[in-house]
Amino acid sequence: MTTHGRIRLIEDRCTSCMICVRECPTWCIHIEAHSEELPPTTPEAGLGRPGVHPSRGRERRHNVLDSFDIDWSLCMYCGICIEECPFDALEWAGEHVAGTDSRAGLVHDRHTLGEGAAERGQRGQREIE
Ligand code: SF4
Ligand code: SF4
User: pTM (2 decimals)?
Assistant: First the structure.
């Protein structure tokens, strides 16, 4: 019998859009994020239009991820979060959730969820080369 195992977060793809949080049927994903202003890439673009700063062009904002947790004691491994993520930031990791002797140990943070993502990226890069 094969298993999907746990879910891996590929953090640099995550935009904190919260779709996975809303679609998860057991509410076991918890995300916190904040919004930050970005400098305009084209200062001249849009000058004189409403909402455009006279000296800096149109202001842009993006979400910054503060925390991303999955509670494995609630997860039923349905894969909906993986299917619904528009940015392919979640994937099956192909390994089991590590055993623990506490309920708190079943809540994995962004660092634990991201384990293996760097190696995966390097492997993908080698396959391209
Ligand atoms: S696999 Fe299903 S239950 Fe588990 S986090 Fe994703 S959507 Fe939620
Ligand atoms: S759906 Fe994907 S991009 Fe959106 S918050 Fe979840 S993991 Fe991040």
Answer: 0.80
